Amino acid sequence: MFTKILIANRGEIACRVAATARRLGIKTVAVYSEADANAKHVAVCDEAVLLGPAAAKDSYLRGDKIIAAAQATGAQAIHPGYGFLSENAEFADACAAAGLVFIGPPGSSMRAMGSKSAAKQLMEGANVPLVPGYHGDAQDPELLQAEANRIGYPVLLKASAGGGGKGMRVVERSEDFQAALASCKREAISSFGDDKVLVEKYLTRPRHIEIQVFADTHGNCVYLHERDCSVQRRHQKVLEEAPAPGMPPERRAAMGEAAVAAARAVGYVGAGTVEFIANQDGSFYFMEMNTRLQVEHPVTEMITGTDLVEWQLRVAAGQPLPKQQHELAIHGHAIEARVYAENPEKGFLPSIGTLQYMDTPAHVAFELGGADGNPAGVRIDSGVRAGDAISPFYDPMIAKLIVWGADRAQALARMAQALSEFHIVGLATNIAFLKRLVEGGAFAQADLDTGLIERHSAALFPPAGPAPLPALALAAVALVSADTPTSTNPADPWTSTHGWRMNGTCRRRLAFGDEYAAATDAKVYAIDLAYHAHGWTLEADGKAHPLALVAQHDGRYAIRLDGQAIAGTVRRDGETLHVFTGGLHHVLAWSDPLAHAGEHETADGRLTAPMPGKVVAVMAANGQHVRKGEPLVIMEAMKMEHTIAAPSDGLVEEVLYQVGDQVADGAPLLAFKAAA
Q1: Is 169 one of the annotated active-site residues of the chain?
Q2: Exactly one of 10, 227, 292, 314 is catalytic; which is it?
Q3: CA distance 644 to 640
Q4: What is the CATH code for 4-103?
Q5: Percent of the chain with pLDDT over 70
Q6: What is the per-residue DSSP string for 460-495?
C-alpha cells in the first residue's frame, strides 16, 4: 500500500479521498489554486502545494505542475478525483512516465471510451445492447439525415466527444434536421474542439440507469449494482438513488453483466461507471462509460457497505478486489441530493458569495456501518465550511446530502427531513427546490424519467406567495428578544427589555418586506407587538394573536402563536432575516428606521435624534472632515444602541451634545455641511 498520495483535485472529492487515506494510514498532499488557499481540502491534508492562479487552466489542469508537486513531496501516486484531469489519457500516461501511479484506468481505456462513436462500435463487438442509431465516421450532412430518416423520428444528435449535456439536440421532424445538425456541430466544436456527431433514436420518457463496475489487475471485474440517475435538469443529474426502483433481479443481473462485458472490452482497471438509457418497458441500451469515480458513488457505498475510494487505492497498489461478485449484496436504499449554490427560479444560474451560515442536519462525514451494521441515516460530503466563499471559478457544489433507509420510504422521509434542517445563508441555493422534488408525487411514487422536472415544472416552480404569519412571528421574536439589557441588575425595572411601562402598554411596530410584498400595494408586512408580562400580542391585518417565547438557543426559537407550538431558526445577515420554519426558507427584509436615522440631512444641515434617548458616544469633533457612512454619534433608545452616521462626505461644523446628555425626539445632534 502507498505511504503518501497526492490528490489532484479540490472540494468535496478531495476531502473524501483524504478521509479514506487517513483511515488507512496514508499521508496526503493537497494541491490548490490561489483562490483555494484557505479551502477545506487544503486544511484536511498533511501537506499542500500551490499550483497557480484561480483559473483551472492555470492550476488544476496543469498536469506538469501536479506531477512536479508529487515528485517534490515524495508522493507515490496521484488520485485525480473527478473532473479536471480525471479522464485525461495523456495525464495518466505522463504519470506513468514519471514513475507515479495514476489511481484510475490506463490511458488506453480512457481513449477507447473517450469517443462516444468509437465506444459504441466497441460495445457492439462485445454484444452490449445499443440504441438504434448511426455511430460511423462519415459526417456528410445528407448521409446523417438519411440515417435519421431510416431510424425514425424523434432522433437525438449527440457530440461524439461531448458530455454534460453539451452538443445535444432532439429533432422531431426531418425538415428540422439540418438546422439542428448545424447548431449541434457549432456547440460541439466550441465545447470540445470536435464537431463529429452521432445519431440515435430518441427514447420518450427514458430512465437513466448506470452500473458501478470495478476491475483489478488480476483479471477480476465485478458490478456493484445500479444507480438510478433519471432526475436531471438539462442532462445534468440532480437526484441519484440506489438501487433503481422497480428493478427486477433478472434485469439487474443482465445490466450488470453487460457493464462488466463493456469494461473487459477495453481492458479496464479501477472504478468506472457504465451508463445505460432504459425504456419504461425495461429494455436498456449502452450510452457511455465514465472512466472515473462518479459524483454519486456514495449511494453505492451505502447499499453495499463498500468504501470505493479504498478499493481504488488497493487496486492501484496492485491488490485484488476486496470482494467477489457473490459477496456484493444490496442492503437498504440510499438517495443523494446535490446541494448547489444556484437559483432554480432563475434557470439554475450559479450563485456566488460567502456562506455566512451553514447549519446542517445531524450527520456523519463518512460512515458505512454502525454497531448494528447499518450505515448512518444521514451523511454529508462537503468541501466547504461556514465562512467559505463559493467563487465563480469552479463548480458551485456546496455538499452532497446522502441518506440511507431500510427501504425507499424510509430513505425518502429522511431526505425530506434532512433538507428541512439544511440551512444556508449568504447565497442562493437549490435546497427548497430539492425538497419540493423529493416530496413531489412523481419522485415519491418512483414515476421516473429524464423529463420529470420539465413535466412537473408547475409544481416544482410555484409562484411566490405571502410570508406566513408563523415566519413573521419568528422574525419579530428574534428581533425583540435580541434587545440587550443595559444593567446587570435583573430587579431594575428601568433596564428591563420586556416593554415594562408604568402606565399603559408598550407597543412596537415592525415592517418586513420580501419579493411578494414588494409587488403588492402595501409593499411590506406591517405588524404590531403589544408587550405583556409573559409575552406579546401580535397584531396583523386587523387580527390579534397571542404570542410567547418558549425557548431560544443560538438562533433557534420555540414560540407559541395562537396556542400552537412553532419552532424555527432565524439567522440575521445585516437587515435581512432568514427564517427557517416548517421546512421552508423565508427571506425577510427588515428596515430599521432607527438604524437609518441621520442618513438624510435636514433642511438646515443638522442631523437629528430619531427618538428620545441618551448620547452614549461621540466619535466626531468640531471641524472634522468625515466620509459617508462614518459613525458620528451613538444614542441609546429603547434599550438599544443606534448609530447616527454621516449621510455623505462632509464637514462636522459643530457637535451639539456630549456623552450622557438626554436628547429629545427630533433634536439636532450636530451641524453638518456636505462636501461639494
Answers
A1: no
A2: 292
A3: 13
A4: 3.40.50.20
A5: 93
A6: HSPPP-PPPHHHHHHHHHHHHHTPPPS-S-TT-GGG
